[in-house]
Amino acid sequence: MFTIAVDFDGTIAYHDWGKTPQFVPGALETLTLWNQQPNIQLVLNTMRSGKYLEEAIWFLETHGIKFVGYNQNPTQQKWTSSPKVYANLYIDDASLGCPVTKPDIFTPGGRPYVDWAKVDQLVSEMVLFVEPIHQD
Ligand SMILES: [Mg+2]
């Protein structure tokens, strides 16, 4: 199983604090595609907590995106007490090297956000490399 930890603000949704979440371009499509892959599971990895985390979960569930954990990988407690979310890959607008799109005057929140077209391509190559698909 290939676990991808995905940030919320600036990654899945525009960085527009206090507003109703809106998907950045390509996020819904890519996450939906990954949900359909049997060798990929998603964990939401966000600084949100309390009612703000609940808002994000509601938003994602409303759009049919499935996560196996929210701010935790449900299986890692078997082998570590670390609070860091375990994943094979982390996608976060604040991480070095993550492709981001420059905002324009129409961008909600006015901050950079993840370029999902580039992420989708990079992850496709990585998942195939880590776990080849065998065809009988
Ligand atoms: Mg972020």
Oligomer: single chain
Mean pLDDT: 92
Distance between the termini: 19 Å
The CATH architecture is: 3-Layer(aba) Sandwich
Name the CATH class: Alpha Beta
Beta-strand proportion? 5-15%
Keywords:
HAD family hydrolase; two-stranded antiparallel sheet; HAD_sf; 6 strands; binds magnesium ion; Rossmann fold; 3 helices; 4-stranded parallel sheet; globular; 14% strand; alpha/beta; 136 residues; single chain
Structural commentary:
The protein is 27% helix and 14% strand. The chain is α/β, with parallel strands linked by helices. It has one domain (2-124): HAD superfamily/HAD-like (Rossmann fold), CATH 3.40.50.1000. The strands form 2 sheets. A 4-stranded parallel sheet has the order 3-2-1-4, with helices on one face. Strands 5-6 form a two-stranded antiparallel sheet. The radius of gyration is 15 Å and the shape is globular. The protein binds magnesium ion. Magnesium ion binds at residues 7, 9-11, 92-94. This is HAD family hydrolase.
Fold blueprint:
Elements: E1 2-6, H1 27-35, E2 40-44, H2 50-62, E3 69-70, E4 89-91, E5 100-101, E6 113-114, H3 116-130
Parallel strand pairs: 1-2, 1-4, 2-3
Antiparallel strand pairs: 5-6
The structure holds magnesium ion (MG).
What's a quick, concise take on this entry?
This protein has 136 residues and is an alpha/beta fold. It has 3 helices and 6 strands, in the order E-H-E-H-E-E-E-E-H.
